[in-house]
Amino acid sequence: MNVGKEEEEGGQPSSWRKNRDQTEGSKPEPEIEEHRIEVKDWIGSVGKAKERRTASLSQTSWPSISKVSHLLRGTKDFNKFFQPRVISIGPYHHGKPHLRPVEKIKPLCAQEFLASQQRIEDVYKRIKSNIGAVRKCYDRRPTNKYDDETLAWMMLLDGCFILQFIVLEREDKTKEVLREHQISYVEDDLFLLENQLPFGVLQLIVETAHIPSMKDKIEEFVVSRITLLPEGTSVSEMQLEKPAHLLDLLRSALLGPYQEAYGHGCCGRRMKSSSKKESSSQVNWQSFRHIKELKAAGIYFKPSGTWFLRDISFKSHFFYGYLKLPLLFIDDSTKPTFLNLVAYEMCPDAPHDYAVTSFLCFLDSLIDHADDVKELRNKKILYNCLGSDKEVARIFNQIADGLVDLNVYKDVKDDIQKHYDKIVNTWIAEALHNHFRSPWTIMAFIAAVCILLLTGVQTYFAMPGN
């Protein structure tokens, strides 16, 4: 095979060139234009992009409400956990056929909440004057379907529905406008990421309608989603700043106040300090897998006394340790609520601490089997309203599946690992667990020690000369 004779310019065989010429005739081969990027043009485009971004930020201070990230759209039963079942809020799911029955209630709620036609007109004008800010909160494609008047009216009706529902819920009168099964679904729908209204819109409605007590009612409604609350607790005690929407307010209520000192709680904002420690020292590999293994190493569990997800701490003593965890109330709303909080933390305008995501990853490292859930129940840390401990373990394993652990709770994990690595602690813990399970075995041990002491004393005095 004479490759040298067969190949010509361009490295193409002559036989291939003949076939090509026969099919194309005498047409000249088109020249391929080289795509070049001029440096000056590129720098100019970057400058314009920055200007557009700056102008956008200066026009509104309302955070954006993004759709659920594509990273979570492969979640099993996606529609069940991320899309509304009864009520649509905002433009993303507006007009869907299965949501139309409750849509008819919105004008009635607006009339009841604002109490007069003049107030309705005033609120509408106020919202319409801020419609540019409203549009910037949502993705462009869904809002482009609506003109300014339609979008402003949508914001008014949705905002008034939320506020009137909160008023009725606080006064236990929701059954006057909704069926009992609808009430529970509405409460769930109001905390879905794609079903949010800018908090600025709610503020416009409340300010224009002159209802100063509404702020407290909104806070009480959000806090009521966290079932285990002491009486008289208010979100205002948590030093909250302007929330983006109701889901953001719920997240702040769950996380609680920021605690700087380790031992009083762990906070996602310590991420940077943790990463520095990783670079300066060797990272301990987490070898423990679940609560049962920790218990075998002498690590026991206590409730921290609050529902704040940041309130996690560990203290190691001589041969045992205590891990304090926040109170958890598990019911049918737990999974969709946590999934939407995780989706919110993936959004560009969300807080960058990933505190909820990190908590779920940490809890997933502790819960692997039904026995782990049972241990948390016995310690009054976890309250299971689902009936099955196996189902609770499966829920947390599914929520944390695919999530990236940013080592927010690295300090706690490292301290647990140091205690876990001490083999003496495991030996002592196993001895205590195997031989001192009940008060009777402890009493028998004390009795045996007393008998040995008395026998020794008796033998000593029985010896000649004593």
Q: In what order do the strands lie side by side in the largest sheet?
A: 1-3-2
The percentage helix is 40-55%
The helix-and-strand class reads mainly alpha
The averaged pLDDT comes out at: 79
How many strand segments?
5
**Low-confidence residue ranges:** 1-20, 55-59, 260-283
- End-to-end separation: 115 Å
What would you report as the Rg, rounded to the nearest angstrom? Answer: 32 Å
The biggest beta sheet is recorded as: 3 strands, mixed
Helix and strand sequence: HHHHHHHHHHHHHHHHEEEEHHHEHHHH
Structure explained in plain terms:
- This protein is mainly alpha-helical and 466 residues long.
- The chain has 23 helices and five strands.
- It has helices at 3-6, 14-24, 39-59, 78-82, 100-103, 106-114, 117-129, 131-137, 140-144, 148-170, 180-189, 199-209, 214-224, 246-255, 271-280, 291-296, 334-345, 355-366, 370-378, 389-400, 410-421, 423-435, 439-462; strands spanning 299-303, 313-316, 321-325, 328-330, 382-384.
- Strands 1-3-2 form a three-stranded mixed beta sheet. A two-stranded parallel ribbon has the order 4-5.
- Helix 7 packs antiparallel against helix 12.
- The protein is elongated, with a radius of gyration of 32 Å.
- Residues 1-20, 55-59 and 260-283 have low confidence and may be disordered.
What is the fold's blueprint, element by element?
Blueprint: H1 3-6, H2 14-24, H3 39-59, H4 78-82, H5 100-103, H6 106-114, H7 117-129, H8 131-137, H9 140-144, H10 148-170, H11 180-189, H12 199-209, H13 214-224, H14 246-255, H15 271-280, H16 291-296, E1 299-303, E2 313-316, E3 321-325, E4 328-330, H17 334-345, H18 355-366, H19 370-378, E5 382-384, H20 389-400, H21 410-421, H22 423-435, H23 439-462
Parallel strand pairs: 1-3, 4-5
Antiparallel strand pairs: 2-3
Helix pairs in contact: 6-10, 7-10, 7-12, 10-13, 17-18, 18-20, 19-20
